[in-house]
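Quick check before the chapter quiz. The format below is the same one you will see on the exam, so make sure you can read both the input and the output lines.
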Amino acid sequence: MSHIISDVVNTVSDFFPVKRFAALFPAVATSPTIESVISPPSVDMSPIIRLAGLSGAVAISLGAYGSHVLRDNPSIDERRRTAFDTASRYHLIHSLALLASPAARFPLVTAGLFTAGITLFCGPCYHYSISGVETTRKYTPIGGVTLIIAWLSFIL
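Here is the expected output.
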């Protein structure tokens, strides 16, 4: 486009004795410079981001295990399947929340609370679903409260 405008300006200036016509419009007289506008993302690979990635990968892996192994196993009752589905869903959702922890005012506190909450809530649910042993289920409410506190730590 600027090439066409430049040609028109040169043709017009040849017919008319206005030599400084191009000087009035410096953008037309010179070729445009192209700058790179895209910059690399400013997010660093902090340990919290890496932990969130690991937690998400574990959540997906355990979810795949549950859908392929536990779902088709006739010895697993519905209560254990439901516990596994709940653990898998909460694990993945809170892994995403862990990914947002660096944006909190106290990122280490928030990330620590999410990590503890995932471990204390999802861990016993996974354990119960896979083994059928109910001894670790008493830690699930502690994990749930820890997850609530982790969410509230975003407003500090």
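If your answer matched, good. The first helix runs from residue 2 to 15.
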